[in-house]
Amino acid sequence: MSNRTLxxxxxxxxxxxxxxxxxxxxxxTLYFSFIRYVLNNLRRPEWTTPSxxxxxxFGNYNxxxxxxxxxxxxxxxxxxxxxxxxxxxxxxxxxxxLINKAFPGRSLVRVLLxxxxxxxxxxxxxxxxxMILDPVLGLQGLAVGGINAVIADLQNAPIIGPFFSLWPxxxxxxxxxxxxxxxxxxxxxxxxxxxxxVLIFMTSLQSEDQQQKEAAILDGASAWSQFRFLTxxxxxxxxxxxxxxQAIFHLSLYAEIEIVSxxxxxxxxxxxxxxxxxxxxxxxxxTGIFAVILANIVAxxxxxxxxxxxxx
Amino acid sequence: xxxxxxxxxxxxxxxxxxxxxxxxxxxDGEFAVFVGPSGCGKSTLLRLIAGLEDTTSGRILIDDAxxxxxxxxxxxxxxxxxxxxxxxxxxxxKNIAFPMRMAGLSEEEQEKxxxxxxxxxxxxxYLDRKPGQLSGGQxxxxxxxxxxxxxxxxxxxxxxxxxxxxxxxxxxxxxxxEMHERMQTTMIYVTHDQVEAMTMAxxxxxxxxxVIEQVGSPLELYRAPQNLFVAGFIGSPKMNLIDGPQAQKHxxxxxxxxxxxxxxxxxxxxxxxxxxxxxxxxxxxxxxxxGTGLAETLTVRAxxxxxxxxxxxxxxxxxxxxxxxxxxxxxxxx
Lengths: 312, 334
Known about the structure:
The complex is a heterodimer.
Chain A: H1 5-33, H2 59-66, H3 70-100, H4 106-114, H5 121-132, H6 139-156, H7 161-164, H8 181-206, H9 210-218, H10 223-250, H11 255-261, H12 269-276, H13 281-311
Helix pairs in contact in A: 1-13, 2-13, 3-8, 3-10, 5-8, 5-11, 8-10, 8-11, 10-13, 12-13
Chain B: E1 4-13, E2 16-26, E3 31-35, H1 42-50, E4 57-62, E5 65-66, E6 77-80, H2 92-103, H3 107-120, H4 136-148, E7 154-158, H5 166-183, E8 186-191, H6 194-200, E9 203-208, E10 211-216, H7 218-223, H8 228-233, E11 240-243, H9 245-249, E12 254-257, E13 262-265, E14 271-280, E15 284-290, E16 298-303, E17 313-318, E18 324-326
Parallel strand pairs in B: 3-8, 3-9, 6-7, 7-8
Antiparallel strand pairs in B: 1-2, 1-4, 4-5, 9-10, 11-12, 12-18, 13-17, 14-15, 14-17, 15-16
Helix pairs in contact in B: 2-3, 2-4
């Protein structure tokens, strides 16, 4: 036996397991996406069993592409993922830099900062949409109502009254409305995932070389220059990691969308798959294949970006 | 110009005072070496001068200007760190250019100075590489290059050679000394290695627990150590320190004899013993002698190759004029 054979033999079970793990679901999805397969159809009961005789070719794909919700779902998936990534990375870097300095109560602040990450997604969505974003009973509704009341009072005041009478009464935003429900999802997921970014950036900041900073101080670098030329490049790698992991997670957001609007005008691809899967497994599988393609495009794009930051 | 004066400088971390009131003058163009065992406060002292630590009390003067409250970058000093502290994601060129970029120098001026520094440090071929692609010695040279381009009034070196292997260390030691001869700029160099101190310095400052034990030229310290600590610290191998009756014979509590001041003789030596380990270096031979009744081990240096082996009896003759005498407080007796 050559000295390579044994290691390879020992790796084989793991590799085979991984292949089965990935290939079986993928090939089943592919198979279902090319046949007619529904859960319930009284007129054509033969479609309720998956069989090669129900071959539909690209019919399911055609059906999905012509569905009015499909392109909206693709757009929405990208909008939600990109916005959350953008916000969490910026907030994460700012907060991590802020709490990297020693101050009294720092460890307590750190624990509190991490806590949103431990909230279940569904609970998070219910909390936000009912208690904070609700236009009547939520914090938002109360705040808008309060401001309006103050302005109404000021309008009756002498002297300054005429100035405030020009102000319009503020309208609370209904985040369950179709156009704004995506923003509600973005807000609540950003709140939940910023701690993850903070955690990763914080550990990275702690490994930053202090002598480099001191050298930069002696070289005359201002606090901003130190951040721009030392800290940000140092954070390049963790930023890439945060972007990659979060992209994978947020492409498959589901609970938040279900709770905020039940997919009403705000679907993403997983939600669309879920709707199809109520009955039409063939169409759901075809959408799943589109989702795989989209995920791959995003992954290639991200890997390029990460590769660039690592090479620099 | 670069005359640095410390006046009653102290430094405390919380309750612990690491540097009691300390006075020191370093003249323009001097090569001063702070030497001492680890934890003696020599690095802290350097960082105080650099401004990376705030003094607890006292004044620091550079060229007669009080810089105690001046920010590090405004003091006109350059520092070379033990870990080099290069910016890892910048090329060598950008690393060297960084202080000039921060100072807002023109591109042409930057390029001119980079090339001058790179040529004198043999870095021209590496300007577009990242620090990660360089060897330890090259990184050290980049760090020096970054320090040179600022045209500082003094250079501060914080154990710059301790991360290099022995051969490179000797080479860089020569290069830094050569650089000092050429530039005639004040340099302050911190090390725990007394060989570096002896070979490079004009002025050695021996520190122990934040206190200056002795200041002087290398040979002054070698010939007339002011106390037992300096006597034991300067010189390699270490001075033999003997107390007891033998010392009292010389009217001292402790006497010290350097290994090179004890002769190995055929007969009639004042001291006798047995050879322990013998190190034959060719040019010299070091004997570790036991059973003399003076100290546990006496170190003796003999010129050339002396063919005594482990366990052989040996006769030793200390040179009477080279015996250092110390009193009960460890201070030198005249």
